[in-house]
Amino acid sequence: MSSLVLAHTRYQMLEQIRVPIGLVSSAFFPAASMLAFVVPFAADDPVAATTATGSMMMIGAMSAALMGLSISVAQDREQPWNPYLRTLPAGPLPRFAGRILTTMAIMLVAVIPVLVIAGLFTEAAITVPRLLLGMAALLAGSVPFMLLGLFLGFVLSSKAAIGVSQLLFFPVAILGGLFLPPQIMPAFVQAVSPFVPSRGAVELVWAATTGSSPDPVAVVMLAGWTVVAAVAAVWAYRRDEGRRFS
What CA–CA distances, in Å, run from 163 to 70, 99, 239? Predict the structure, then answer.
């Protein structure tokens, strides 16, 4: 099974390298947000700059997980190669695992420009162990968004997935406090923020990189969203399987 997972991961990575626009867009948007929102306003405060850098990292991870994964899955469903793969006896696990590993690799690449900008233009400070812990928190917090990306990819066409994933991405990112700190947002946003998955995800990154205590409500809701997204992704896969192969 491990060799099949590696084969599918290699195949997916080659696809990304050959058509790198998805990787470029995943890296460009958080870097541009870093230059627009963090460098002008929080560069001189080490704690604020480090926290904001974590938020921009989460934006890049969300983009790759939610938009990138949903679009790539929807596009694959429209290719003649995909039905053939689904008839093979290996089952869906190797393909899913390969796609998830590829998405995680894209996430890690997407945060590199953010870290470079933080190091060159802000007073953000972090130790190597905390940076590694922050990367692990980033991947863990991105799980529900990858599952949501799979769900959208299995229920929508590629054109619809582009629009719907973007419509979901921006409100969830804003409500989660990724573009602006939750403390300066309107009162109703502060009340809603702990209940959206992006807030719980970024709380994990903040805790890992700065040593702050995560909001327990946000973390519990993140776990709940992960379960809901997993159920939705499994249902969407089985629905698609039944429509195409029954």
Answer: 11, 21, 22
Q: What angle do CA 171, 215, 218 make, to 5 degrees?
A: 40
Query: CA-CA distance, 224 to 208, in Å (whole number)?
Result: 21
Residue 133: half-sphere exposure toward Cβ, Cα within 13 Å: 14
Number of other CB atoms surrounding residue 118 within 10 Å: 25
Q: Which residue has the tokens 């080490």?
A: 46
167-209 residue pLDDT tens: 999 999 999 989 888 888 888 889 999 999 999 999 999 999 9
* 111-145: pLDDT as tens digits: 899 999 999 998 988 889 999 999 999 999 999 99
pTM of the complete model: 0.88
* C-alpha closest to that of 181 among 60, 26, 29, 42: 42
Task: Give the chain as a 3 state SS string.
Answer: CHHHHHHHHHHHHHHHHHCCHHHHHHHHHHHHHHHHHHHHHHCCCHHHHHHHHHHHHHHHHHHHHHHHHHHHHHHHHCCCHHHHHHCCCCCCHHHHHHHHHHHHHHHHHHCHHHHHHHHHHCCCCCCHHHHHHHHHHHHHHCHHHHHHHHHHHHHCCHHHHHHHHHHHHHHHHHHCCCCCCHHHCCHHHHHHHHHCHHHHHHHHHHHHHHCCCCCHHHHHHHHHHHHHHHHHHHHHHHHHHHHHHC
Cα 137-143-149 angle, rounded to 5 deg? 140
Q: For tokens 């590629």, name the residue.
A: 158
N- to C-terminal Cα separation, the chain: 26
